[in-house]
């Protein structure tokens, strides 16, 4: 129980300590007028209560990532705990805070425009296309996944559910943010929160009563415990498998939406930093639950080898631990999670395209002009095997996060502030992404080179980017 309790405790304490330090270091101030005070349009720039913004941000960034990703990451053993805790506190939550606050400081603009301002116009163009692809990939995947699950639950074809979810996505993308997202998200949030609290509570009960075996982080377990370690090397694979829950670039695409609704910069810490800490707690709960349910990492690996997918594992845990009623609520949460990320993925894509084209989104016809092509492409992609594209979403998340971290580091340097809290994580994640492309098997987008080649090259690329960054900011002083 010690590892689980300490990990949860560290995440909570970090919000009140390091989160407060990040807020002061950034310089958040209630005296600075937020974009919604100057640019309110009743559609995207619309005032919302802080607690509603927190729930929306939490659901937007959560999806199935901190559940399914954490379960897959738990196959590596308790080392997953180390990455979730350290990654969430010093990388993910800080990344989310800066992406949101930089948007506030720049009129609520989308991520590609923020990146372009600090890293150059060529990077902005790349980010517009790259971010658009990632959001489309997430959106389409989060149509098919829930539709398939709902079809299985109701003994129906997934096709009718596909149309229902698409209809909801279209409305959520087009209507003012307070009409659907602002009204129903609090209810959806209850299902996710119930699921996390119920499973976490059972872990505590089972651990203290001796009914569950919770694997501790010790010197003996600080190793790769994956059943196929040759193709699932701890570094960098663990850092890609667990993105949501530690750090995920997708979050930086969601934060600007909430930046357009905030009435005070001081809300940034609970909304951006706090939502990511909450996601880290959810990831910790599910990583621990997956190992505990099967008696440890080895049992979890055996279950995965036998064909038990994360969805099957979630269903088994909920039915076994929470009873029939609890399982229904939990399954609703599993359906809700991807839907609440899918709708805002499409909405973010609309805003990014509109920002790139400088296209006013207040008139409904302008929103339709941008949105119709998006949904036509999304619908066509739903009819093909999307698994190949989805394989690249994990690494795409981390590439996006890396660019966001370098952007925040450049912002700090230009403000004459120490950049280390962003440049060090940016360097580390640059090494992770480069090493992944070199070492990963062909089937997941890598060159399948040996660690003896991949590790040195990855380190050289990361350090070279850091040196380039230092050189550029020194010249610009």
Show the helix and strand layout.
Elements: H1 2-16, H2 18-26, H3 35-39, H4 50-62, H5 65-74, H6 79-105, H7 111-119, H8 121-154, H9 158-174, H10 181-209, H11 234-241, H12 250-259, H13 268-293, H14 297-305, H15 310-357, H16 364-382, H17 387-390, H18 393-414, H19 420-439, H20 451-475
Helix pairs in contact: 1-6, 1-13, 2-6, 2-13, 4-10, 4-12, 4-13, 4-15, 5-13, 5-15, 6-12, 6-13, 6-18, 7-8, 7-18, 8-9, 8-15, 8-16, 8-18, 9-15, 9-16, 10-13, 10-15, 11-19, 12-15, 13-14, 15-16, 18-19, 19-20
Can you give a write-up of this model?
With 477 residues, this protein is an all-alpha fold. The protein has a single domain (1-475), classed as Up-down Bundle (Amino acid/polyamine transporter I). The protein is built from 20 helices and no strands. Helix 1 packs antiparallel against helix 13. The longest helix is centred in the last third of the chain and has 48 residues, at 310-357. The N and C termini lie far apart (51 Å). The mean pLDDT is 90.
């Amino acid at each position: 129980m010690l590892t689980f309790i300490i990990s949860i405790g560290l995440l909570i304490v970090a919000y009140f300590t390091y989160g407060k330090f990040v807020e002061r270091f950034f310089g958040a101030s209630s005296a600075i007028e937020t974009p919604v005070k100057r640019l309110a349009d009743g559609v995207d720039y619309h005032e919302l209560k802080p607690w509603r913004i927190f729930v929306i941000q939490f659901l937007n960034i959560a999806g199935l990532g901190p559940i399914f990703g954490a379960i897959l990451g738990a196959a590596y053993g308790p080392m997953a705990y180390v990455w979730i805790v350290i990654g969430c506190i010093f990388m993910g939550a800080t990344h989310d805070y800066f992406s949101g606050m930089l948007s506030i400081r720049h009129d609520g603009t989308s991520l590609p425009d923020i990146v372009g301002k600090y890293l150059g116009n060529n990077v902005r163009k790349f980010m517009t296309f790259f971010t658009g692809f990632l959001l489309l990939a997430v959106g389409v995947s989060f149509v098919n996944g829930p539709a398939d699950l709902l079809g299985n639950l109701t003994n129906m074809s997934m096709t009718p559910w596909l149309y229902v979810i698409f209809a909801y996505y279209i409305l959520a993308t087009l209507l003012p943010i307070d009409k659907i997202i602002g009204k129903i998200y609090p209810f959806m949030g209850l299902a996710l929160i119930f699921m996390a609290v119920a499973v976490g509570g059972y872990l505590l009960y089972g651990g203290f009563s001796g009914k569950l075996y919770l694997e501790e982080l010790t010197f003996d377990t600080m190793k790769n415990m994956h059943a196929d370690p040759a193709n699932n090397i701890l570094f960098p694979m663990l850092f890609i498998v667990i993105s949501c829950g530690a750090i995920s670039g997708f979050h930086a695409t969601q934060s600007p939406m909430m930046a357009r609704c905030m009435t005070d910069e001081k809300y940034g810490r609970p909304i951006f930093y706090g939502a990511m800490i909450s996601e880290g707690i959810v990831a910790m709960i599910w990583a621990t639950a997956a190992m505990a349910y099967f008696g440890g990492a080895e049992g979890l690996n055996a279950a995965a080898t036998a064909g038990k997918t994360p969805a099957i594992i979630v269903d088994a845990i909920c039915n076994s631990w929470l009873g029939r009623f609890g399982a229904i609520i939990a399954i609703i949460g599993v359906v809700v999670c991807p839907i609440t990320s899918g709708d805002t993925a499409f909405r973010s894509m609309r805003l990014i395209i509109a920002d790139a084209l400088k296209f006013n989104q207040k008139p409904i016809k302008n929103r339709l002009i941008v949105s119709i092509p998006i949904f036509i492409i999304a619908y066509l992609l739903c009819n093909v095997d999307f698994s190949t594209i989805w394989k690249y979403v994990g690494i795409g998340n981390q590439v996006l996060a890396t660019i966001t971290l370098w952007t925040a580091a450049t912002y700090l340097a230009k403000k004459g502030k120490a950049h280390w809290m962003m440049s060090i994580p940016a360097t580390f994640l640059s090494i992770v992404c480069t090493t992944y492309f070199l070492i990963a098997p062909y089937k997941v987008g890598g060159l399948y080179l040996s660690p003896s080649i991949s590790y040195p090259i990855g380190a050289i690329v990361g350090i070279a980017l850091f040196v380039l960054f230092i050189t550029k900011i020194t010249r610009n002083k």
